[in-house]
């Protein structure tokens, strides 16, 4: 532990200092601290004037107190009468402190500004050098008063322990700064939790303060990790927590600094309160993310919001207010993604004529590109410069230009008309059946009979390959048949990309057609079914139309084998594939 102290030019008088439970008679308060705390070293900052007038008296007193003066270092500092001098004093103090060192600061003596500079410097060093502030003390000579001790009256000089202010107040300051600047309440919640634990050891109940700390931690974590659904649910609890009279009392009694942060927190929550519409709820949240230096969150939030608006305003898949379905990335949201992807592709090919749709597509193209660029951390060709992100945010998002476009009812009318036209013009005119085939010929037969495809892509084994022609004859299928053979139909799980490439090659001739893929989930080995499901999922990601089906034959196995060519039942499967991915 190192003691830092200042020496001034006053004519110091001997006085009785009360420090903790003991009384010491001394001229210099640092003598008291040296005896009580037994530091490993003492650093005395002094000007030329202080050195000339008081250094000798100080060292004499330290010797009389039994302090080894070899561990006392006198450090010269300027008088501190100019701003330049004060910065030099800061540098000198900082140079005397090592990283992770335990420091005690005595601010009793020295020219008026020097103790203040020392205190502020120590607060700074706490963060940049991770020093531990073991104590900050002041011997209050001007507050001395007469007391009765051992049947006689004696003038006692009190000493003040300022450690809580110097050590803890900057922590609360940092918590407030992180909350206001970055929207991060983690430090605030952590400090409240620590305080609660300390008070609990003293058998002091602060239940509302604990509840408040947990709430602050949760709301910050949900916001900063984009858990919007959970945040919305948590927000509903805000009134019951923040308006508790007991909470206000506990804050005023035990953590006065939080009294002022508390109002900031209430404003922080109100700014991102759920609004009456999806657009305004999420747009305000996106602005909040941007203003708190979370541009990636901002761009992701906006794009997901636009998908939700498409589902609401164009496709009619969800209602006007958020619900559980909106937060599931299932086939419903993929419909919105496909529409958005088609819009962007048409803009890229200069096929859009409507000015509102062109404007929407242009903004969405930039938003999507910037979202992806941020997500790849510049690991891509021609990555975007930071100033481009911020300019887009300021000019298009924070200015509410994008919001105004999305509020335009004509935009949604035009988008709906465009979508209806696309649906009519782009109805699939070619159906490709993707199916595994094991030894159950009847399942493939039923799949062909139910779906009447123009082409079939079969994943099977060498044995199964020999049965394909027979099944097609029985089903009177005369379209194109493409067969991919698995070398090991039981364990070849990881080669799905190879079979995906095979599928792409075989359907190249249909590239001018509008294709719907019918994916049969039944038949073949587990490995075959897994590969087919992986391929289907990848096709969906690419925006292709995919319909899942399953064939069921309720007859016993012997009858199925004896007479396989009997039409079974077919079931349309909506979400089964999500069980596998």
TrEMBL record:
It comes from the Bacteria. InterPro entries: CRISPR-assoc_prot_DxTHG_CS, CRISPR-assoc_prot_TM1812. This is CRISPR-associated Csx2 family protein. It comes from Anoxybacteroides tepidamans.
């Amino acid at each position: 532990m190192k003691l830092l102290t200042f020496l001034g030019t006053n004519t110091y008088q001997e006085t009785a200092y009360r420090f903790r439970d003991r009384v010491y008679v001394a001229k210099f308060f640092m003598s008291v601290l040296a005896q009580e705390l037994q530091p490993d070293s003492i650093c005395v900052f002094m000007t030329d004037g202080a050195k000339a007038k008081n250094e000798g008296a100080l060292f004499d007193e330290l010797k009389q107190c039994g302090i080894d003066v070899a561990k006392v270092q006198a450090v010269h500092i300027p008088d501190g009468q100019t701003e330049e001098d004060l910065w030099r004093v800061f540098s000198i103090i900082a140079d005397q402190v090592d990283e992770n060192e335990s420091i005690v600061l005595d601010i009793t003596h020295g020219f008026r500004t020097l103790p203040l500079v020392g205190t502020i410097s120590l607060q700074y060093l706490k963060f940049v050098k991770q020093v531990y502030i073991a104590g900050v003390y002041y011997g209050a000579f001007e507050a001395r008063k007469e007391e009765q001790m051992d049947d006689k009256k004696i003038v006692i000089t009190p000493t003040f322990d300022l450690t809580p202010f110097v050590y803890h107040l900057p922590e609360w300051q940092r918590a407030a700064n992180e909350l206001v600047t970055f929207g991060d309440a983690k430090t605030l919640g952590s400090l409240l939790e620590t305080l609660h634990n300390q008070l609990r050891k003293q058998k002091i109940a602060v239940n509302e303060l604990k509840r408040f700390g947990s709430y602050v931690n949760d709301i910050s974590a949900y916001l900063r990790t984009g858990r919007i659904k959970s945040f919305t649910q948590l927000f509903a609890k805000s009134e019951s927590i923040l308006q508790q009279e007991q909470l206000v009392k506990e804050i005023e009694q035990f953590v006065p600094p939080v009294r002022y942060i508390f109002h900031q927190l209430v404003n922080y929550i109100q700014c991102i309160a759920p609004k009456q519409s999806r657009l305004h709820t999420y747009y305000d949240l996106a602005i909040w993310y941007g203003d708190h230096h979370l541009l990636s969150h901002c761009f992701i939030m906006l794009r997901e919001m636009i998908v939700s608006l498409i589902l609401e305003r164009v496709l009619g898949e969800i209602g006007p207010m958020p619900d559980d379905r909106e937060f599931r990335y299932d086939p419903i949201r993929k419909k919105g993604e496909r529409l958005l992807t088609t819009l962007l592709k048409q803009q890229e090919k200069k096929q859009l004529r409507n000015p509102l749709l062109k404007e929407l597509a242009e903004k969405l193209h930039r938003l999507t590109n910037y979202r992806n660029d941020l997500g790849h951390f510049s690991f891509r060709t021609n990555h975007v410069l930071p100033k481009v992100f911020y300019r887009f945010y300021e000019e298009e998002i924070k200015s509410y230009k994008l919001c105004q476009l999305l509020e335009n009812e004509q935009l949604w009318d035009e988008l709906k008309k465009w979508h209806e036209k696309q649906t009519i013009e782009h109805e699939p005119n070619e159906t490709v059946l993707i199916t595994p085939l094991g030894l159950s010929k009847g399942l493939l037969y039923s799949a062909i009979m139910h779906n009447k495809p123009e082409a079939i892509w079969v994943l099977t084994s060498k044995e199964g390959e020999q049965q394909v022609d027979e099944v097609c004859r029985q089903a009177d299928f005369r379209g194109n048949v493409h067969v991919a053979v698995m070398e090991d139909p039981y364990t070849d799980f990881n080669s799905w990309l190879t079979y995906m490439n095979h599928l792409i090659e075989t359907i190249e001739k249909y590239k001018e057609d509008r294709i719907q893929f019918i994916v049969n989930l039944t038949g073949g080995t587990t490995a075959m079914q897994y590969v087919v499901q992986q391929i289907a999922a990848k096709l969906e990601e690419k925006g292709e139309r995919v319909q899942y089906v399953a064939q069921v034959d309720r007859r016993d196995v012997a009858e199925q084998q004896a007479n396989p060519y009997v039409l079974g039942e077919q079931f349309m499967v909506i979400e089964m594939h999500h069980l596998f991915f």
